[in-house]
Amino acid sequence: MSVRETVMVIGGAGYIGSHTAKELSTEYNVIVYDNLYRGHKWAVQFGEFIEGDILDTKRLTETLKRYSVKGVFHFAAHSLVGESVSDPLKYWQNNVAGTLSVLEAMKQGKVNHIVFSSTAAVFGEPEEVPINEEARLVPCNPYGATKLTVENILSQCRDAHGLSYSVLRYFNAAGADPDSMLGEDHSPETHLIPLVLDAALGRRKSISIFGDDYDTFDGTCVRDYIHVTDLATAHVLAYKRSIKENSSLSLNLGNGQGYSVRQVIDVVKKTTKVDFTVETAPRRQGDPPSLIASSEKAIRLLGWKPCYNSLEDIVETAWNWHRKHFA
């Protein structure tokens, strides 16, 4: 009987990290490392929990060595675009300096494989959609800029130290664990689907559409929603490829189709059977009309394919968990 390898999920008490820990737990021993700034202790259901900050290089190094960690999954980042504009130093300190700490700890602990949670924000306002990996990287906010900086650092560490990395740039993570064990619970909440579900549950008086005059088919912004379990599966596949080939790559992850804000609201109303109030508000600065991913490269290189292709399926899993957790 083979001994299971150990992996560390940094930020594993958060939304995507906790779902990835669940996927990993079927094949690996999982260590969840999180400072619980945005994450939740209840979300650590798959793996041993170590409370710690990514800026604590010594604690990171000790943990990597103690558990003989083979690979790292790095989700620990501040990710609110508006906050990054108003407080950029907070983002550069955590997202960039924090990742430097992680990489130093990995170097000291002789851990050579990392899967990095990046973002579509590295593309800024795209010239063409769907967006493939060859699109220009011109982030238009500090959040995207910090993620792109980390991508460049990873590339330099590959050249200097032989680091093997997987950069996964995803679009709008959505949905919840099909078993309703895990789900989306941010404070403050900024993602559209949980906000609309809050309106359906009566936790919000209404939902706002920020701009209905965009150059899209119904005037509202169009986004690519990818189910969080599909994202988690892609992380596992990317790690396996990294171990097998000792190579590095950058991939976009999405469903390859876009849904408008109004479509999301309509699907939530249909799923929940609740007719909540919808209001129109002015546009938000920096919202591109349409963001849709091309995941052809991930499908080809990883053998990955999203299982939750329809918005209805994504919303249903989110609603099932939302009712259980908040009602």
Can you offer a commentary on this structure?
- This protein is an alpha/beta fold.
- It folds into two domains: 6-173 and 227-253, Rossmann fold (3-Layer(aba) Sandwich); 192-223 and 256-326, UDP-galactose 4-epimerase, domain 1 (Alpha-Beta Complex), CATH 3.90.25.
- It has helices at residues 15-24, 57-66, 81-86, 88-109, 142-161, 192-201, 228-245, 261-272, 296-302, 311-326, and strands spanning 6-10, 29-34, 48-51, 69-74, 113-119, 164-170, 172-174, 206-210, 222-223, 225-227, 249-253, 259-260, 277-281, 290-291.
- It has a seven-stranded parallel β-sheet, sandwiched between helices. A three-stranded mixed β-sheet has the order 12-9-14. Strands 7-10 form a two-stranded parallel sheet.
- α5 (142-161) links the parallel β5 (113-119) and β6.
- The chain starts with 5 loop residues before the first strand and ends with a helix.
